[in-house]
C-alpha cells in the first residue's frame, strides 16, 4: 500500500505540473514560478498561469469527489458499474441547478449546491425504484439502463431550458458537459464544507463497505448497524456528487474508471481503494483536461468529453465481465 500511495502521489504531482505548464501556449517552469511569486513582468503569462492554476485546483477537487462517490456507490449497491454519471446522479444535479437558475434566480455556488443535492437525491430514488422493477439477476445492467434513461431525460430538459433562454445558454452550457475551464477557483471555498463532510463520510466508510460486500446479514452478525452506516455512506456519496456537479457540471465516468483501476492495483479492500481513489481521481481529471487542451489547438475539448471517451470502453468491458459471471 505505501508503494501504491507513493506512486499515486507522483502521478498526481506530474499531472499538476503538466496542467500548469501545457496548453495552447506552453510555459517554462521559470516563467510559472515568476508568475506565482509575483515577479513576472508579462501580464499575459500571469493571466495564463492564474487561469491554469484555477482550473487545476477545480480539477483536483472534482476528481477526488467523483472518484470517492463512485467507490461508495459501487460498494453500497454491490454493482461494479454504479457511478454518479451512469446512475444519472450528475445529470439530475445539473438539471436541478439549471432549473434553479432559470426559475428561482439562483446565482451563487451555495444555491447551486442546495439545488444539486435535491436533484441528486430525487434521481437516486427514481433510479432505485426503476431498478426494483427488474429481475434481481439483471440488477446491475438494469440499474445502468435506468440511470442512462434518467440521464438522457435530464440532458434533454437541460437543453430545452437553455435553448429557450439565450442568456442561460451562453452562461451555463457547461451544465450539459462538465468543464473545469472558466470556473472561479473561489467557488471551491464556497463549496468546501459540503465536500469536506462528504469526503469524511466516504473515507470512513471503508469498514462498512467491506462488511456490506459480504452481505447485509453477515454485516449485522459482525456488529454493523447496517441501515445507519449505509445511510451515512450514501449521504457522503450524494454530497460529493452534488458538490462536484455544482462546481464543474456533470463529469462522467471518473467514478467508474478510477475505482476499477485502483482495485487492479491494491485489491478489493475498500479502505485502500478509497484512499488511492482520492489521489488518482484528481490525476485522472487533470490529465483529461490537459489532453482536451492539446488535441485540437487553438480550441479545447471539454474535460467531460475526454473522460467519457476514456470511460465508455471501460463501461463496456465491465458490463461484459458482469454478464459473463
TrEMBL record:
Signal sequence region: none
Q: How does it sit in the membrane?
A: Multi-pass membrane protein
Choose any GO biological process term that the UniProt entry carries and state it.
siderophore-iron import into cell
- Claim: Cytoplasm is one of the keywords in the record: no
Query: Of which family is this protein a member?
Result: Belongs to the binding-protein-dependent transport system permease family. FecCD subfamily.
Location relative to the cell: Cell membrane
Q: Which GO terms describe its molecular function?
A: transmembrane transporter activity
CDD domains noted in UniProt = TM_ABC_iron-siderophores_like
PANTHER family, alphabetically? FE(3+) DICITRATE TRANSPORT SYSTEM PERMEASE PROTEIN FECC-RELATED, FERRIC ENTEROBACTIN TRANSPORT SYSTEM PERMEASE PROTEIN
Database matches in Pfam families: FecCD
Q: What is this protein called?
A: Iron ABC transporter permease
Keyword terms, alphabetized: Cell membrane, Membrane, Transmembrane, Transmembrane helix, Transport
Entry's Gene Ontology cellular component terms: plasma membrane
The organism's place on the tree of life at top rank: Bacteria
Transmembrane region(s):
54-73, 85-105, 111-134, 141-163, 232-261, 273-295, 301-319
Q: Which InterPro entries does the record associate with it?
A: ABC_BtuC-like (IPR037294), ABC_transptr_permease_BtuC (IPR000522)
Amino acid at each position: 500500500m505505501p508503494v501504491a500511495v507513493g506512486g499515486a502521489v507522483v502521478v498526481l504531482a506530474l499531472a499538476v505540473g503538466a496542467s500548469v505548464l501545457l496548453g495552447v501556449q506552453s510555459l517554462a517552469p521559470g516563467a510559472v514560478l515568476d508568475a506565482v511569486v509575483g515577479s513576472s513582468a508579462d501580464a499575459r503569462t500571469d493571466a495564463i498561469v492564474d487561469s491554469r492554476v484555477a482550473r487545476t485546483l477545480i480539477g483536483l477537487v472534482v476528481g477526488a469527489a467523483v472518484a470517492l462517490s463512485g467507490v461508495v456507490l459501487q460498494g453500497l449497491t454491490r454493482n461494479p458499474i454504479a457511478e454518479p454519471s451512469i446512475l444519472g446522479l450528475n445529470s439530475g444535479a445539473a438539471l436541478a441547478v439549471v432549473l434553479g437558475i432559470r426559475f428561482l434566480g439562483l446565482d451563487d455556488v451555495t444555491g447551486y449546491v442546495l439545488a444539486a443535492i435535491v436533484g441528486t437525491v430525487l434521481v437516486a430514488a427514481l433510479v432505485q425504484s426503476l431498478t426494483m422493477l427488474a429481475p434481481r439477476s439483471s440488477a446491475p445492467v438494469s440499474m445502468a439502463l435506468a440511470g442512462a434513461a434518467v440521464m438522457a431525460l435530464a440532458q434533454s430538459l437541460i437543453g430545452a431550458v437553455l435553448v429557450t433562454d439565450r442568456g442561460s445558454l451562453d452562461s451555463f452550457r457547461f451544465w450539459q458537459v462538465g468543464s473545469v475551464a472558466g470556473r472561479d477557483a473561489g467557488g471551491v471555498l464556497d463549496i468546501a464544507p459540503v465536500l469536506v463532510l462528504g469526503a469524511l463520510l466516504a473515507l470512513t466508510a471503508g469498514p462498512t463497505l467491506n462488511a456490506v460486500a459480504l452481505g447485509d446479514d453477515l454485516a449485522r452478525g459482525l456488529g454493523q448497524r447496517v441501515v445507519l452506516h449505509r445511510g451515512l455512506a450514501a449521504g457522503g456519496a450524494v454530497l460529493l456528487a452534488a458538490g462536484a456537479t455544482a462546481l464543474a457540471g456533470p463529469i462522467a465516468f471518473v467514478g467508474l474508471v478510477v475505482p476499477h483501476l485502483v482495485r487492479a492495483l491494491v485489491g478489493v479492500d475498500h479502505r485502500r481503494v478509497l484512499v488511492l481513489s482520492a489521489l488518482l481521481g484528481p490525476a485522472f481529471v487533470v490529465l483529461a483536461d490537459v489532453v482536451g487542451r492539446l488535441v485540437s489547438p487553438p480550441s479545447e475539448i471539454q474535460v467531460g468529453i475526454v473522460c467519457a471517451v476514456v470511460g465508455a470502453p471501460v463501461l463496456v468491458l465491465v458490463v461484459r465481465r458482469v454478464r459473463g459471471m
